[in-house]
Amino acid sequence: MWLLTALLLWVLAGAQAADLTKAVITLQPPWVSVFQEENITLWCEGPHLPGNSSTRWFLNGTAFQTLTPRYRIAAASVSDTGEYRCQTGLSVPSDPVRLEIHRDWLLLQVQSRVFTEGEPLTLRCHGWKNKPVYNVVFYQNDKAFKFSPQNSEFTILKTSLSHNGIYHCSGMGRHRYTSPGVYTVKELFLAPVLKASLSLPLLEGHLVNLSCETKLLLQRPGLQ
Questions:
Q1: Looking at the record's lineage, which domain of life comes first (predicted)?
Q2: b vs e for 26-41, b when ≥16 Cβ sit within 10 Å of the residue's Cβ?
Q3: Contact 182, 167 (CB under 8 A)
């Protein structure tokens, strides 16, 4: 009897821990915007039931397939645009990843639509059908900040709130093209507020409690 009770407690504890586990979607290649006819693979990472690696995939909130953790889009079309989520056997659904499929000549690619301060930010000025792009200019809020004659990628190693804004790029192929804009950096915390708990009239020797309060705007593992 004692052994059965212990086993049930262990199973319940494991189920509660599993409830706190959120699946995560990663992309290969890692860009959230791609051109039509390009290939992209979505991977779902999360705990599975023993001997069962099936994964549920959702597009714009609707379950569309139960598959392996790998979902491949071959020759993407505009109809593949949308918010993707996934869920494994022992996880809650992942955060949404919005994938956009474009018909254009030039595209500024990023690895996420929301970056938080402190994270690196890679910008890629990508030509249709992988055509070379020369004399690339990167812009933040319509102001040019980086010129590169041949390299179409630029990385900001550690972002701050000064990097917040809308980015786009321009470059030369047979003609000079300009990409659509994408926005990036978000702050992690709201500005802190100092609060005091006290009783009036405030007299010498009375107790005063001070608290510094803020809020984490975006969930990131390990942040406190």
A1: Eukaryota
A2: ebeeebbbbbeebebe
A3: yes
Q: What is the rounded CA–CA span in Å between residue 217 and residue 1?
A: 47
Tokens of 166: 């809308």
- Judge if pTM exceeds 0.90: no
The dihedral through the CA atoms of 127, 149, 169, 172 has a sign that is negative
Instruction: Using DSSP bridges, classify how beta strands 193-197 and 209-213 pair: parallel, antiparallel or unpaired.
Output: antiparallel
8 A C-beta contact, residue 46 and residue 90 = yes
Assigned token pair, 15: 């189920």
Please count the other Cβ atoms lying within 10 Å of the Cβ belonging to residue 13: 10
- 199's CB contacts (< 8 A; 6+ apart) are 206
Q: What is the pLDDT of residues 19-52, one digit of tens each?
A: 459 999 999 999 999 999 999 999 999 998 888 8
CA angle 92, 94, 97 (to 5 degrees): 165
